[in-house]
Amino acid sequence: MDQLSQIVKAYDIRGTVPEQMDTELTHALGRAAAVVLGGPEIVVGRDMRPSGPELAEAFMAGVRAQGVGTVDIGLASTDLLYYASGDMGVPGVMFTASHNPAQYNGMKFCRAGAEPVALDTGLAQMRDLILDGTLPEPADEPGAHRTVEGTIDAFADHVRGFVDVDALRPLKVAVDAGNGMAGLVVPAVFDALPFEVVPLYFELDGTFPNHPANPIEPENLLDLQAAVREHGCDIGLAFDGDADRMFCVDAEGNGVSPSLVTAVIADTTLRAHPGETVLYNLICSRTVPEAVEAAGGKAVRTRVGHSYIKQVMAETGALFAGEHSGHYYFADNYRADSGLIAAVILLQALSVSGGTMADLVAPYDKYAASGEINSTVADQQAAIDAVREHFGDDAEISDPDGMLVEADRWWFNLRPSNTEPLLRLNVEGDDEATMAEIRDRVLGIVRG
Questions:
Q1: Which CATH code for domain 174-252?
Q2: I need a surface site. Which of 160, 169, 190, 427 has the fewest CB within 10 A?
Q3: What sections of the protein cross the membrane (predicted)?
Q4: DSSP assignment, residue 22?
Q5: What CATH number belongs to 4-153?
Q6: How far apart are CA 79 and CA 87, in angstroms?
Q7: Any idea which residues carry the catalytic annotation?
Q8: Residue 391: phi, psi to the nearest 5?
């Protein structure tokens, strides 16, 4: 099981099947999860990947071997699994590799109440129990098993509870599920709402026959953009494979930055809860804290990553948090992220505005952004140090996650990938020329 060291990541477990993940390994992970997460039960969901049923069964057998019960909710989105963990008050495990190709699968863990589990809060301990051969002996009495149906209906009610349904107006909404779990959960939520849905790729198919379920890549939005224009839709929504991330395009098919979506949702939620705290990660546009403060809220910047954000939400009592990557977190959703909750709040904001999606985001669309630019770099730290030396006299530099460099008319973040020899650059400027100048200066140093 040496491959375990390769597939345990900062926030989850992810690898190819069966080369890196097989039933023997997931059985052992079930035993380790029972020890680390405890019980009395662990709730388990899975996405539509062909390897999911077999791997999930092996995992649950491992959990039960250690005397902890298992609850199988079957096919689920990741936010549905988090809801089940929070609602039942038990740890949870979701079998998914999110946006990765079909040959991958993986596992996302949480403690009771959807509390996140990361490398330093449980994943490393599970890994070491297996690799060190220190798993306790199986229990004398195996845990019980039960299958629960109907969780999706309760989840759909929960999602709709975040909006005033009476405030929604008839909208035509194109939705690209990418053959992922949005094909299951979007109808469960939207069928009771006054929207006409134009569905794209709602058939659950973990081989992803149409395009990768990774809407952060522009080429994977082309079909959605075409459908919005062809059918005269008010908005288009795209979800990743496990449906916890949401991206959108306006009525013309133009992409809407997650920073702008974060600003809209923050403004909308703060209207109902004035004075509350909203978190945004350090790659979000400056328009986010400006919108939060204009709405009477308190804006707090965080590092990137769901485990860290959920921790800061708990510490600050934050109402909402948004990330540049399309993750949106809600205090009343056990501080977990949900693409669906973000979608219905955005649609409520569009309904109430009475205008177009472009009109809705225009007040927040003030700055020019580079988007995330990746560079392959052999020595990440040396490149970061060179950039630091170059900009040291021109800006304020801090190190919350990689390096954050800020000046009056621009800022950029340069941070290393956790899993690849890459540096990720995000630049924002007051205008396109300023952004381009800073972008090119940084890339000239990083790429030599």
A1: 3.40.120.10
A2: 169
A3: none
A4: -
A5: 3.40.120.10
A6: 12
A7: 98
A8: -100, 0
